[in-house]
Amino acid sequence: MVVMKDLSSHTTPLFVSAVRLLPAGLLLVAWAARSGRAQPSSPMAWMSIAVFGLIDGTGFQGFLAEGLQRTSAGLGSVIIDSQPLTVAVLAALLFGEELAAGGYVGMGLGVAGLCLLEVPLDLLFHAPEIAAGLLTDGPQAVSAAASSTGRSWSIWDSGEWWMLLAAQSMAVGTVLVPWVSRYSDAVMATGWHMVLGGIPLLALSVMQEADTLLPRLADFNGWDAVSLVYISVLGSAASYGVFFYNASRGNLTALSSLTFLTPMFAALTGYIFLGETLTPLQLAGATVTLGAVALINSNGKRKQAS
């Protein structure tokens, strides 16, 4: 997510989202075909993939790109990675998946661990004062902003709102996988959903961002290219393929809980390769997160309702 935010400032948000999906999708389709996996053939297969692509591809990546321009990568990650809560609700309603008491505790601990890992200390320790300030000073601040810009504030100016939409899109995409997999191979469907989801993003980028994008591409450098390859090949092709393949075969709630680990691995990678420091609170957050995932995947599940 940090790489996406940095790339967006060197290119444009929707362009980054499109490039994250399109090459990765084509690469995954090519790999799946080479592995002998069947191409989608029936109208129902293509329709299900198109719906999957619109929600999880266009929706998730588009909302994510817009949200990153309006909020920090850390806070955005907390909102995105809390999507297992939505998956748990949808999986229970649609597929009869149930959590035991330990699973519900694990979900709560997972969100708590995310907050300890990624939310700035000032925000954590002064949350009541900040909330009170928003309640008392928020209307005046919004009014002042409206006067200075000549327009009123709306919820679409909120990065947190865009991130929440992205999280819900990802959650819905996850629970769509068993349905999509009835009509086509899960890995092949994942690749095609990235291609179909990336096309609208590319079209929107051309229509809305061309004036900004073209001058920035003139300054495109080697590090930017490496970053694009990274978010496309590793951040999309590999991770999407593995995640959705497993989503077609296992417990959706337990699988989605693994996304709680994403910020922990990001922090660990930064510590090992970039020399970044981890505070005691972040180490505590990592420990809580590991415990939460273990709790959900060990004794937090019940059998699916018949």
UniProtKB/TrEMBL annotation:
How is this protein annotated for GO cellular component? Answer: chloroplast; membrane
Could you tell me which InterPro entries the record lists for this protein? AA-Vitamin_Transporters, EamA_dom, EmrE-like
Ranges that cross the membrane: 12-33, 45-63, 75-95, 102-121, 161-180, 187-207, 227-245, 252-274, 280-297
Keywords, A to Z? Membrane, Transmembrane, Transmembrane helix
Q: By its UniProt entry, which SUPFAM superfamilies does this protein fall under?
A: Multidrug resistance efflux transporter EmrE
The membrane topology noted for this protein in its Swiss-Prot or TrEMBL record is: Multi-pass membrane protein
**Where does this one sit in the cell?**
Membrane
Residue ranges of every copy of the EamA domain listed in the record: 2-117, 158-297
Give the family, as the similarity comment puts it.
Belongs to the drug/metabolite transporter (DMT) superfamily. Plant drug/metabolite exporter (P-DME) (TC 2.A.7.4) family.
- What protein does this entry describe? EamA domain-containing protein
Q: What is the lineage of its organism?
A: Eukaryota, Viridiplantae, Chlorophyta, core chlorophytes, Trebouxiophyceae
